[in-house]
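Hey,
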Amino acid sequence: MSIVAYAPASTANMSVGFDLLGAPLAPIDGSLLGDKVWVGETDGEFSLTTAGPFAHKLPEDYRQNIVYDCYLGYGRALAKRGLALKPLTMVLEKNLPVGSGLGSSATSVVAALVGLNAYHDDVLDEQELLLLMGELEGQISGSVHYDNVAPCYLGGLQLVLDDGGVISQPLPVFEDWYWVVCYPGISVSTSAARAILPAQYRRQDCLTYGRRLAGFVHASHTGQEAVAAAMLKDVIAEPYRSQLIPGFAAVRDHAATMGALATGISGSGPTVFCVMKDLHQAEKLKDWLAEHFIQNQDGFCHICKLDAQGARVTGTEL
C-alpha cells in the first residue's frame, strides 16, 4: 500500500490581512505548484528520503526535516487514541524553494500529515488535523500561524479567526482575477522578515489596517470587486519588507502601468503577486517579470487562479 499527497503553494497576508489571510495557488497551465509526500509500507525501520528540485536545500539528516517531526507528531496523536503508527517509509518531493514566501514549510507539513492520515484510514478529523498542522508549522516559525496551513489544507481564500473554537473560515473569491506570482530566486528567512518589522505601530496605521481588512472582507461577501481591490494595500509589513526585495518598487510601478489591480509581497517575500483582470496583460507581465525580476535559475513565474481544492491525495506513486 502507498499514498501520495499533494499540498499547494500559498500566498499569505495578501497585503491587507497580515497573519490572517491566505490562499493556495493553482497555475492556469495545469501544473502543480507545491510539495508531494509519498507514504509507503516497509518491512524495516522508518526512513525518510528527499527528491525534487529543491531537495538540496534541506538538511542532510532526516531527523532535522519537518516531515520527520510530522511523523512523530502524528504518532503521538494516534497514541492518544490507543493506536500505533503502521510500519512505513516516506519520501518528500520538495518542489518549493525554502524562504520563498510561498508557504514552503506549510506545504511539506500539510502534504505529510494528509498522506499519513490517508495511510491510516483518516483517523483524525479535519479539525484535529488542522490543529496538528498549526502546531508543526509553529515549530519552524516560532509561533502558531494558520495563514499558510489553513488555505493549503482546506483550499480557497481563508480568513484565520483562531478564536471561539473556529480556526478559519472561507471567503468568497473573485473568479476572474489572475494572480501573477513571481519568485526571484533569492531567499528571505521568515525570522529576518519578522525582525525588520517595528515592535510598535502608530495608532493611525492600526486603524488603517483594521479598516482595510474589514472593507476587503465585506467587499468579498458583497461582490464589490473594485472596493476589494482598492483595499489590497499593506501598512504593516510591506513598507519594511520591501527593503529585502531588490526591484520590488519597479515591479509595482510597472504592474500598475499594465493594469494590475494590486501588487504585493507574498508572505514574508521575496515572491511578489500582481492581481490582473486581463489574461493577455497577465502573460505580458509574466514575461516582463522573467526578464527584469528573476535573478537566477531558481526563479520562476506563474499565472495562477486560487486553488479551491487545497491538499489532496493524488495517487500512489510520485
